[in-house]
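Now for today's protein.

===
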Amino acid sequence: MATAVLNVKIDEALKERLRHYAEVNNENLSVTTEKLLQLAFEAVAEAGVTEEDIDNQHTEEESVTPFTPKEIKALRKILKKRK
């Protein structure tokens, strides 16, 4: 199995719980995180939870185009006038 790096931001209290769990089970943070994620996915599969159940509002992210350089220049001009 190939390994990959996963950087996530989580609540500090949750990280401490995870660190404590790893310490109690004589594991490192990486092994514990992987094990608990795997257990969570297995629990979801056993419960029969689908994507439809999770996203019950059926929303999709809107694709927004970034501002053009011309629009950025115009916004800067407006903001400069406000000062």
Remarks:
- The longest helix spans residues 29-47.
- The chain has a mean pLDDT of 86.
- The two ends are 57 Å apart (CA to CA).
- The helical segments are 12-24, 29-47, 51-54, 69-82.
